[in-house]
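Hi P.,

Sorry for the delay on this. The queue was packed all week, but I finally got your sequence through. Input first:
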Amino acid sequence: MISSALNQLHLELPASFPVNPIIGESTYCQLTSAFEHYHQSLLNDDSALGYIVGRGISVNTIEQYRLGFGDRTLLQQITGEKKRKLVRRSLQCTGFIKPNGREIFRGCISFPVKRLNLIVGGYGRLRARNCCWGSSPYTYHLIEEDTLFNQDILESRPKSIVLVKSPLEAVSLIQVYPEPCIGLIHLPLLTDEQIALLNHSGVKLVKICINPTEFWQKKISQIAIKLLSVGIRVKVVALPVWHDVNQLLQDARGDKVLIKLIQHAQKWQGGSNATY
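Then the structure:
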């Protein structure tokens, strides 16, 4: 079924529709419609839907966060070459379509990213097990670079949050754990702007829930140091090195194990004595 939102690709938005001022209402409408088309494509593609459900993501979560699938059919739905070129050019301006004309989330499960309930980009997880040389199984595009996944949860001014390393892990954790959770998108660190946002939002404690591979051990330390510098306390969840949040939740009783690990997160010690 073709998304009804796709029919709006060339229609102007009503005056009451919320618009990201950076890109204007016409392009914002197209961007929103593109993600909605991806969502419908995921629901109608048994293979893609089976993949993400197999990763432990429920249909309710797919609906809530409007997860989608880049099945390469977006521009095919637009009748007329002139209109198709206009939409392609418009979406290229946001980064949704690459300079070569290909969609950035081609073949990916897509996670729309919002800020103040407005779409400001997305994150993609390549469905295929292998990717081409020089490519990454993870991709993103953000109109506002400092946005975190599920950032709007900070509007409720939580005292404590859980930080994970990707949107996939964020939606995985949100399904089983009630504490507010935010996810990194494209950088393995928190930027100064993101640190300031957490501080301004009244966050007093961040529980870093990232499996400590050699690469991430260093990043966890860097994140912790920056948080502590503004007075935000840090605890580290002792995830096994070989299991991130999503992988752990696929194990039998993995949800209970993960909840217990978060509840028993330890104060970050720092330096060579850091424990994970």
